[in-house]
Amino acid sequence: MLSALFSAEALPSHDYLFNLADRVSSVLENEKTSYRPEAEDGTAGGLLDFTETDVSDLPVLIVPDLHARAFFLSHILNLRLPEDRFPENPTVLEALAQKAIRVICVGDLLHSELRGRDRWLSALEDFKNGNFTGDAMKSEMQEGLTLLSAVMELKCAFPEVFHVLKGNHENIMNERGEGNFPFRKFADEGEMVFRFMQDFYGDDVLMVVSSFEKSLPLLAAFPNCVISHAEPQTYYSKSRIINGLHDESLIQGLTWTPNDEADEDSCKRMADELTGNPDAVYFGGHRPISGTCTFRQGGKYIQIHNPVREFVTLIMTGRIFDPDTDIINAGSNS
Description:
The chain starts with a helix and ends in a 5-residue tail after the last strand. The protein is of the alpha/beta class. It has helices at 2-7, 14-29, 70-78, 92-97, 117-128, 135-157, 189-200, 203-214, 238-242, 248-255, 266-275, 323-326; strands at residues 47-49, 60-63, 102-105, 162-164, 219-222, 225-228, 281-284, 294-296, 301-303, 311-315, 327-329. It has a six-stranded mixed beta sheet. The protein has a five-stranded mixed beta sheet with strand order 4-3-2-10-11. 37% of the residues lie in helices and 12% in strands.
């Protein structure tokens, strides 16, 4: 299924996308409470907690913002893991099938952003003329929905070891509220995607994709690291994160934070509470960087979203993060 998706040159069908989004939403809503504690209302909570001994022993591969880069995800799945840490030298996909690794995507699945700037501007001209499904927009959405479909397929196939966190671009309805804001950068991307989905697929697909987005967890905790889409705006308690899927300010604070606007101690306080490990660090994407990573909050927060490279971060249990060895290029770019 994945190879067919990555090689597809057409948009996914209505029935395929509807059924897949419905299936993955059910997977998310029924995750094991051993690592995804229930909220007070009995629904799946906002925290993935892998700090307990029975679920904490796997290496973690952190995937930054994907932004419609299906080729990046394909390269990740085919990446051979380093022999010094994986003696059998499996690919990431093989390791997922063996439950030998956990993959955490930090969110932002749609919108090609700068890579697709010219295409967005072309699609905007169509949009202004009332054409919401022109060739440029179809090309953008074919990339985005290929990536989205592959992520959903992986979550269904490997529910315990493949995870996706909510980013600020997980807002297919282009809503304002519940921690979401309409998105626009080079064009009117959020509204353009919404109108495309409405015209091309219909409200039923829109609703079930939105359900998928709203079922995504907000944060993942491991013995030596914490991960969310963005730098946490301020300190959020473990209990508040678990009950956070309807907490507007918390969702905004974990998905939208600009550089230099977070409380300086937010990452340390949260990492200390969630892991109990003074050496634990906090990872996020959201704001673009150059190079392999950028350190903030005195080195406690590590940004990993380079939009023009294909870096992933491999976190091993029992060792302190080292950017020289633990950030890996999954692509052919150098």
